[in-house]
Specification:
Elements (H helix, E strand, L loop, with lengths): L17 H19 L1 H23 L10 E2 L5 E4 L1 E23 L10 E7 L8 E7 L3 E6 L3 E4 L10 E8 L2 E7 L6 E7 L6 E9 L3 E7 L2 E7 L3 E13 L6 E5 L16 E4 L5 E5 L3 E3 L12 H24 L1 H8 L3 H37 L17 H26 L2 H12 L1 H6 L4 H10 L32 H25 L3
Antiparallel strand pairs: 1-2, 2-18, 3-8, 3-11, 3-14, 3-15, 4-5, 4-11, 5-6, 6-7, 8-9, 9-10, 12-13, 14-17, 16-17
Helix pairs in contact: 1-5, 2-3, 2-5, 3-5, 3-6, 3-7, 5-6, 6-7, 6-10
């Protein structure tokens, strides 16, 4: 009798949850589809090369003379610091008070909304020296501003209807700003600290006004004319409590009293007149604010991304429409009945692949472009010398790579919905590229609206310059300025991509393959 023994082989069981194991299999399958199609790899490589090359060529075509020595704030920001100043020295702690009764344009026109008349405490009379000021404006009420980049709103006093009392109090390094309607009851606006403030400083009344800018836009181009205005402010009840080595008020034009930058540089100096009744009339020009007229060297380093987008659109579209064209999508859905999982796997693969290639491309674009821009005059002190790993450069590099990746995902979603390469590519190009082109020609309000509601808002992620809300400027897309913050702009594109994927998922479940 023969005994036969059999051994039982334990079948392999994945340690992953079944759903996870199935999705990983899908990811491998979609990745295999991608890298085995040489044309897609070629498109991806061309996108990276074009992004770098066009960015380099764009930087090579930009230049500046860099002959004007900029005025720098304590933190290194390029600023404008020119105004007419009636001042005295203050040694140690003390208080200066004044009533602003009027602020008018010298030529009878309406003054600029950010024209300024008020009190200032300044470390020295040198442009760029630290300061704290409390001031009245024609269009933005009473403000406290200090060290050029800081602003806090006070009351909404209207100089056209009532005078405004202002006060600055110094206690060591602390300077506190107050306002009052009657000179008896005071409201604190802001308490600021000026680091290493010397024992003796300059305090008093000042007047300044930013340049007025006239913008004309048409489909033939854009013209911008800047002109320097002159304002006259009336003050009374000017009083200083504290120790001062200068018993009389003295007038001076800080920074020459004329704008730092475009505009008339040969203007007449400011003037101070004092009436027998103690009314001070100050006439002057200039501004105390960040200088936002310089070029954005961060944004100028990514001009190739605009062209690279076209290749990413084609790649994202073909990754799905090619299967529809050849009928292979039926095989995919037969092997994986869950169509939303297939869509998710395709999304992960196209997003990961495009971002992995775009990130080194944008990093190299920035590095090479910055080197060329410095050779062409965009160098310190007027322009920052940014390294790749510091903000805002790092944000712009990573954000530009994310922009390219999100565009590919958007194209994938649109491709699933439309199922045709030509239609999907045309749709995404119209959504992302066309608004950017039209924004260069449309009237500014329409252009800014377009760059808020379309995926083209994502180009704001490349913006490197800081635009302050208390500085009037024409935010032109061709100058690298966008109406949304960098992250908010990129979020608009992400929202479009998500909407396209949700519509694609709905379409897959409602339509035959």
């Amino acid at each position: 009798m023969t005994t036969t023994s059999t051994s039982t082989v334990t079948p392999y069981r994945s340690q992953l949850h079944p759903a996870r194991a199935g999705f990983l299999r899908l990811l491998r399958a979609e990745w295999t589809k991608f890298w085995t199609v040489r044309a897609w790899l070629l498109v991806l490589a061309i996108a990276a090369v074009v992004t770098v090359v066009i960015s380099q060529l764009g930087a090579s075509g930009s230049s500046t003379s860099g002959n004007v020595e900029p005025t720098l704030a304590p933190d290194g920001t390029v600023v404008r610091d020119s105004f007419h100043f009636t001042h005295r020295e203050l040694t140690g702690d003390g208080t200066v008070t004044v009533r602003v009764t009027a602020l008018k344009s010298a030529d009878g026109t309406a003054p600029e909304p950010w024209a300024k008349a008020g009190l200032i405490l300044k470390e020295s009379l040198e442009p760029g020296a630290p300061y704290a000021a409390v001031l009245a404006t024609p269009g933005h009420g009473v403000r406290t501003q200090w060290n050029f980049t800081h602003d806090t709103a006070g009351g909404a006093s209207d100089l056209a209807t009532a005078p405004t009392w202002l006060r600055l109090t110094r206690a060591g390094d602390r300077v506190t700003a107050y306002e009052s309607a009657d000179g008896r009851t005071w409201s604190e606006i802001k308490d600021v600290r000026l680091e290493s403030l010397p024992r003796t400083v300059h305090v008093g009344a000042f007047v300044a006004t930013p340049m007025h800018q006239i913008l004309r836009r048409s489909f033939g181009g854009t013209s911008e004319t800047a002109g320097g205005g002159v304002v006259t402010a009336s003050f009374d009840r000017l009083a200083l409590r504290g120790t001062s080595a200068t018993p009389a008020w003295t007038s001076a034009d800080v920074g020459g009293g004329v704008p730092n930058g475009p505009g008339p540089q040969d203007a007449e100096p400011g003037a101070t007149k004092v009436s027998p009744t103690g009314v001070y009339t100050l006439t002057g020009r200039g501004d105390i604010a960040p200088d936002e007229t310089l070029g954005d060297t961060v944004q100028m380093s990514f001009q190739g991304v605009f062209v690279g987008i076209l290749f990413m659109v084609a790649l994202g579209t073909l990754f799905v429409t090619s299967e529809y064209k050849r009928g292979l999508i039926r095989t995919t859905f037969t092997a994986t009945p869950s169509r939303t999982k297939v869509l998710a796997a395709k999304t992960v693969v196209i997003a990961a692949v495009t971002f992995a290639v775009a990130l080194p491309a944008t990093a190299l674009s920035f590095t090479l472009a910055q080197s060329r821009l410095r050779e062409n005059g965009f160098k310190p002190p007027a322009f920052p010398d940014l390294s790749l790993m510091e903000a805002p450069a790092l944000r712009a590099v990573v954000g530009s790579a994310a922009l390219l990746s999100l565009v590919a995902v958007l194209a994938l979603g649109v491709g699933v919905v439309l199922r045709t390469s030509a239609g999907a590519i045309a749709t995404v190009v119209v959504l992302v590229i066309l608004p950017q082109i039209l924004a260069f020609a449309l009237p500014l309000p329409a252009a800014q609206w377009l760059l808020r509601v379309t995926p083209a808002a994502a180009f704001a992620i490349q913006q490197g310059a800081t635009y302050y809300p208390f500085v009037d400027h024409n935010c032109l897309p061709e100058s690298g300025c966008y109406p949304m913050t960098p992250v908010s702009g990129l979020s608009v594109l992400a929202a479009y991509a998500l909407a396209a994927l949700l519509l694609a998922a709905w379409s897959l479940r409602r339509r035959d393959a």
